[in-house]
Amino acid sequence: MPFTTDAHKQFEKMTQTPVPRLICSLAGPTMVSMLISAAYNLADTYFVSQLGTSATGAVGVVFSLMAIIQAVGFMLGMGSGGVISRYLGEKRNPEATQAASTAFFTSIMVGFVITVSGLIFSDQLMRFLGATDTILPYAQSYAQYILYGAPIMGATFVMNNDLRAEGKAFFSMVGISIGCILNVILDPLMIFTFHLGIAGAAIATVIGQCVSFVILIFNYIRRKTIVGISFKHFSYKWSMHSEILKTGMPSFFRQGLASIATIALNVSARVYGDAAVAAMSIVGRAFFFLLAALLGFGQGFQPVAGYNYGAKCYSRLKQAFWFCVKVGFFGLLILCSLSFVFAPQIMMLFRRDDPQVIAIGTLAFRAQCAIMPLQTFVVISNMLFQSIGKPKQATWLAVLRQGLCFLPAILILPRFLGLLGVQISQPVADCFTFLIALFITLPFLRRLNGFIRSGESREADAGFVAEPLESTNTDREEP
């Protein structure tokens, strides 16, 4: 397949546009879509919280199930997205289309497996996820419809990431945002007007996901994208699946461990009653809203990293990394400072009539806000390694926060500190995650500097157009 005019223009844009302007133009739509998605999560929790403390706890329990579905979707989506951006940077369009098609249809097949197995073992699954006897009925009602939508949700995550990977973040934003906004509108209608209770919230979620799916796939049907999706381009070769899985595995570990961490958190909080489970559920959703701004900004960085690494524009890659770290840190510092001050009011939005939920949640929320800005370096580093095809470093960073650091904290601290241990486990884990991330990322950046100083960084600042990497012969190992 020739390097088409659209692909050529996109290549020039990604390798020649000034880095700050390029990242901001790509990050704007991704931040909007992430914030709207996070706002939907908050709205979902808010409306369900009107049904009582046990119903609020059920949202936290099922959130870990949704994290499993997201883990699959993000693994295939971020995996194929990273492969796509690198292939487009190398001008290998046919392989990019293969990656998109393979990830899309794989996500649907895996989604069906999750649906069937989840419905068969519903009772055991909800108890395993941390449901108490009083939370269980609500959790089962909510989870049933979420499981029905698993294939669509997984495929939507894939298309969302693939569109961003080729620099079409606006299309991604429109599809995700409309689905989330519809979800928020449908929530009160389904829960209160049609008297469906917590099941209504789940139905609204699935309808919103279906609408997002249709809007996103419409871009591929109308050929508004550089890469395409078609079953004839589905690859049966292990090499393609391996490349997607290696690139996307950090996302799987990150999201999968987020699910395991939520389960461990629910189980630890369950000892202190439904109020503790509900409080930590609210904190998790509210905190994700803050994190969503950083994730959206970082997702604008990923295609820039993939394209420029593929084109060997290492100086631009380094500039993009530090730009995102600085902007992300100061942005989060402002958001977290405001949230720290108004933490009690934030908790009261959800359970005004339950002072125990407010007290537990306020302390936990403030502790997380105090440490959160440090996560900027961790998140951007993770996205850097994932986008440029460094699965080992990306995987280590992905497993740190919710795995290697959080799980020991949530298992050990409550034994010595009781409920306080549950509340501070995440910020303690975040401190250790940041310190370890420094040892993983800084050596790579120093190595990148060596390539820049030696003149092996091929920049596009003066109208340079990089050749495909296959045609480049060098004895020196890439960073």
Automatic annotation (TrEMBL):
Source organism superkingdom: Bacteria
UniProt-annotated location(s): Cell membrane
A biological process from GO: response to antibiotic
A Pfam cross-reference name: MatE
UniProt xrefs under InterPro entries: MATE_fam (IPR002528), MATE_MepA-like (IPR045070), MATE_MepA_subfamily (IPR051327), MdtK-like (IPR048279)
Keywords: Antibiotic resistance, Cell membrane, Membrane, Transmembrane, Transmembrane helix, Transport
KW Protease (keyword) present: no
Entry's family note: Belongs to the multi antimicrobial extrusion (MATE) (TC 2.A.66.1) family. MepA subfamily.
Name of protein: Multidrug export protein MepA
Organism phylogeny: Bacteria, Bacillati, Bacillota, Clostridia, Eubacteriales
